[in-house]
Amino acid sequence: MTLFSFYKPLFFGYLVTPFILSSGLYTLAMAPLAAITVWRIPSKKLFAFILPLLLVFLISTHGLWSSFTYYEVFKDFWYLLNPLLAFYVGCFFYLALSRQDFYYIFCIAGIFLALMHLAYFAINPEVLSLGGRDIRDLGVKGNHIVPFTVALLLWGGTGRLFHLRLEALLFAVFLLIISVALSFSRTGWLILIFSLFVYFEFYRKPALILFLVLIVLILSFLVVGGYETNNPLLNKFMNPTSEFIQFDNWNIYDINNNWRGYENFLTREVLENAPFLTQLFGFGAGYSLPLDVTIKLGGDVHSEIFILHSAYSYLLLKTGIIGVLLYLFFLLHLFYIAIRARDMEARSVLVIAGIIFFTSFAISGLYNKVQAIPFMIFLGCSINIFWERKR
């Protein structure tokens, strides 16, 4: 086996093991490849690209001089550095793999994760008799690279990126769609629709733009009208932004049904009463947000939380307004890179930028310790391919 052929299974392993290994072990696995890449690509352009995220981390370090424990501080360091490590791992495989192999293996990894998800239902068919909310409460959740893989296969699987037989392509897409459906995830469907929208350039078709405007109007009506059913999971889909609504007075029912909104409300309350410098630079790494109630989360009872669903609220607490502005600058730079060119990789960068932006409202964006890793690896490889083709 040549060294080149060894990189293919290694790349596959780095894409799927975030969903198998513990997060700490996976970080240790990423660190050597990231260090090798930094040594092999001493690029000023690459460093300038990741500089906003590095500055976010550096701002958070003032938590070392607060009363937080070192464990709490370094746990935040881990969250803040993980996306940088994953990005450099992607750069490593850019050097090691061809463009076609990169996309092909990424899709194979997405199919593998979908099969892992479906295998649970095949082994435990009785779970299918439960409602969607109950299935999600069991922890049987899909992976967000699965809907993204659907778009990659439909757009690139017939020759643009690599070539698959039509029968194999349709069967793979069928399995992936079932996995997306059984994940009962609004984020998953949003990723699928947005990815298809960008890869197929639906935004160039006036009829589709009109359709999307109608969808937005309908969703706005649902948000304002507060459409309710007896099914809690259906309520989440029919009221897509209900969890972000903030009240002046909260009761336990509102907290349970609008948990993300409650997190954001507490963040606002804490920062409004904080000194000006804290509003600018946050409380630093290690800070935990007091909940004002005791509540059961993930099987454990909590009176404070360390990580938030919103990456923007998380950064506001840890790094202040400056940290959020740096994060937004990083995303705007991604959009700028993608929109300025009309290359295949530019579309991939645009999709990733959109996914990070949307998921930052609901599932921690770049700082999701599992779901964000494959996307940052993908970005690390895509953006290097893009710069290479540009030259």
Beta strands, count:
2
> Which class of secondary structure composition applies to the elements?
mainly alpha
Query: Per DSSP, what share of the residues sits in E-state strands of 2 or more residues?
Result: under 5%
Helix and strand element order? HHHHHHHHHHHHHHEEHHH
Low-confidence stretches: 221-229
The tally of helices reads 17
> Level of helix content?
55-70%
Which outline best applies? globular
Mean pLDDT: 83
Which properties best describe this structure?
391 residues, mainly alpha, 70% helix, globular
Describe the model.
Helix 3 (44-60) packs antiparallel against helix 4 and helix 9 runs antiparallel to helix 16 (344-362). A two-stranded antiparallel ribbon has the order 1-2. It contains 17 helices and two strands. The two termini are 32 Å apart. The longest helix is centred in the last third of the chain and has 30 residues, at 311-340. It has 391 residues and is mainly alpha-helical. Mean pLDDT is 83; it is low at 221-229.
